[in-house]
Amino acid sequence: MKSYDFLILGGGSAGFNAARAAVSLGLRTAIVDGARDLGGLCILRGCMPSKTLLYMADVLHLAQKGKTFGLKIPSARADMKAIHARKKKIIADFAGYRQHALTNGKYDLIRAHARFLDPHTVELSNGKKVAAKHILIGTGSKVSVPPVPGLDAAKFWTSDDVLELDFIPQSVIVLGGGIVACELAQFLHRIGARVTLVQRSPNILRDHSADASCEVQKAFVDEGIELFAGTQIQSIAQDQRGTAITFLHDGKKVTRRAAHLFNALGREPNTAGLNLTAAGVRARANGQIIIDKFQRTSASHIYAAGDCSGPAEIVHIAIQQGELAARHAAGVKRLKPIDWSLLLNVVFTDPQLATIGLLERDLDERDRPYLCASYPFNDHGKSILMDATYGYVKVIADPKRGRILGAEIVGKDAGELIHAFSGPLAMRATVFDLLRAPWYHPTLAEIITYPLEEIAEKIKG
Predict the structure, then answer these.
(1) DSSP-derived secondary structure letter, 401
(2) Taking a C-beta distance cutoff of 8 angstroms, is the pair 405, 370 a contact?
(3) What is the pTM (predicted TM-score) of this model?
(4) 3-state secondary structure of 431
(5) What domains appear along the chain, each with residue ranges and CATH number?
(6) Whole-number pLDDT of residue 105
């Protein structure tokens, strides 16, 4: 039986980067990954394919708005076979690079699935066993099928299916209002499908502020997506014509029909087959592994990172977690845990939604004082000339010195603009520091100066 210093279960973003860190620190390392295709969720079925498709839909949307800009564009429509082919080529390049890195690293790559036999030993699906001094679980997540009446018996699309479409569906019912649901619902609408989005919570994107979710929701409705929030699904029925869904909305029974059903009700940790009990690893009821600030599980030599442990299912966080686990296992001194006050999040809808740092609800929960100011895109020169007037920039700062605590942007290219706060937040900069920097006119970025100035005036006054 082969033995390692550091054994990694899963070769996605957390596992791959943990392996690179581990070997650089001299640990005898192996990755166990039995997936059909190497590369992880982000490259194969997540970030990269979805953002490739979303950008193409954005280009199509702008072309269809040609008249707004005084342009004569007689016809602009999606060629799904060409879109699908371009996406496949781009993702193949990304995946090829990752596969090459995985198979040519200074660590062993074992193509199998694993389950724990005891705290230091795993059994592989090829019949072999492997032992390790330290183990990292980075097995990611899988599509969740929650207890919605009729869903378990229904034929539905997952995000994997939507990302592989090579035709324009006539109509789609989207179940869910999270990031994946919203991004892909808008994609489906923009390529030409009739989309109905049904969400249980009062607002879409419920993990974000009500202001932010309502702004995106308004844009969706204005664009033509039929959206029902605050619903209670009563039944899902299917026949040869497609799917019929019945739900309560505003106290009334509503039924909608579509050719296809898209289950976008979220994902859950992919840990069910690991036999965590044998390893002494505790998990929550949904399968999410419980970790401490150094990514250790209840078995102190076993770590977890990425989607299977959370708390944020974001690629750069998974990378940080994997590297932190490897360094801790190698005994690196004076390690600092992840600073959650710098949490960065982006939703790639149109308008985009991006946040960083501590937001109003975080500070309210801690009973911590703050100053807040915002400025709308519909009163900003560059966004007006771009016909990108949904949204706002909001800045949150300490009331004494004006140190920036967080920011929230809804609007055109919010995912890019939010990075104007990344360095300053990490450096504990103040609104006065940012106002000393130059901001070019006319740019989208200069809108950030208006809430900064408002907060600065409040502190001076």
Answers:
(1) T
(2) yes
(3) 0.95
(4) helix
(5) 2-143+268-329 (3.50.50.60), 159-265 (3.50.50.60), 341-460 (3.30.390.30)
(6) 85
